[in-house]
């Protein structure tokens, strides 16, 4: 079980619950324009409580299987960020992928860096993973700084890697190796 972590005086990180669906939907609505350059195009239903409830439920099933950890950042009851460790592979790989965003009103406060640092520790110490990978758009300097502060190293560039904001875009690839 992943325990909640205090990231700042008022912001904590914990595994999402289905009861967080309304807060998550509200955060996506609040940050829709802010996130749109960095995320896939979303159908209107994505911004609803029903969609977010179903998505959280699916991710919790994946968590039970040891394949993912859906995490939220909370300032009291207000959801102010989302971090997903997904695609966890055991066996010889012992790896996971990391994706994240922080509410535009909370950006620049070091919360993403604190969360990534906590996730790296959790992945190493609690989950026994060997490696975490992440990617950023080439021009997403803020996210690149977060990853570098979290111990990630750039390992390459993938042309037309993900469809973001409606078009296939190149991404820088990063990894952090957790064990020698």
TrEMBL record:
Q: Keyword Oxidoreductase: yes or no?
A: no
Q: What is this protein called?
A: GNAT family N-acetyltransferase
Species name: Arthrobacter ramosus
Return the InterPro entries for the record: Acyl_CoA_acyltransferase, GNAT_dom, N-acetyltransferase
Task: Provide the E.C. number(s) assigned to this enzyme.
Answer: 2.3.-.-
Fetch the PANTHER family from UniProt.
[RIBOSOMAL PROTEIN US5]-ALANINE N-ACETYLTRANSFERASE, GNAT FAMILY, PUTATIVE (AFU_ORTHOLOGUE AFUA_3G00765)-RELATED-RELATED
Q: Which PROSITE patterns match?
A: GNAT (PS51186)
Family according to the record: Belongs to the acetyltransferase family. RimJ subfamily.
Residue ranges annotated as transmembrane are: none
